[in-house]
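Section 5.1 Outputs to date
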Amino acid sequence: MRKPIIAGNWKMNKTPEEAAQLVRDLIPLVKDAKCDVVVCTPAVNFAAVKPVIEGTNIKLGAQNVHFKASGAYTGELSADMLKAAGCEYVIIGHSERRQYFGETDKTVNLRTIAAVKAGLKAIVCVGEMKDEREAGYTDMIVMYQTQMALHGLTAEELDNVVIAYEPVWAIGTGLTATDEQANETIGVIRKAIAYKFGQEAADKIRIQYGGSMKGSNVKGLMAQPEIDGGLIGGASLKAEDFAQVVNF
């Protein structure tokens, strides 16, 4: 049995003061959660959030990581820096990073390796664009993205990897893949992992759905056998909304 994982991706939202208040509000609402709970905050909020969630069941995550340990990479953060700031998780390859900041399958791979080797848990995002789905390329794209992202890791190291399937056309648009569509594509991702790392690794790895999951649709999505949680955007910015998803 795979333990579900619900992670909030706050994106570029919340000042440190607002972030601390949000997690203070969240703590009592999710204390009995049956899933792992993660909040991936902007880096400026780590110091404000970390002491508030200390001793609770909420874990801290980052939204990106650089693939080098140090160097002339202005504006970037290394895996060791994230760990020192109290992060246990990091999102890698989100579609917004790919769309706006030149992220490629190659850099996703390098970041994933760096995160895992440093002892972070990587939430690796894969997913197709709307025209790619309509053209029938969804399976091919998510298989390639998944295998490329994990290239160079061992089956054992996948214990520290979560995959987030996020159909790009369903992020921030209000559109959601049907429960069956999401389950089917996540099944394809699991097959891609089985092909590369073996069935045991594929059966163990947790795969989230990340396209506009919220309180109104979480039950149907989480009832699907292949779906192990969610990477939550807008619904993670209010404690009550996020708790509704966490307590599915």
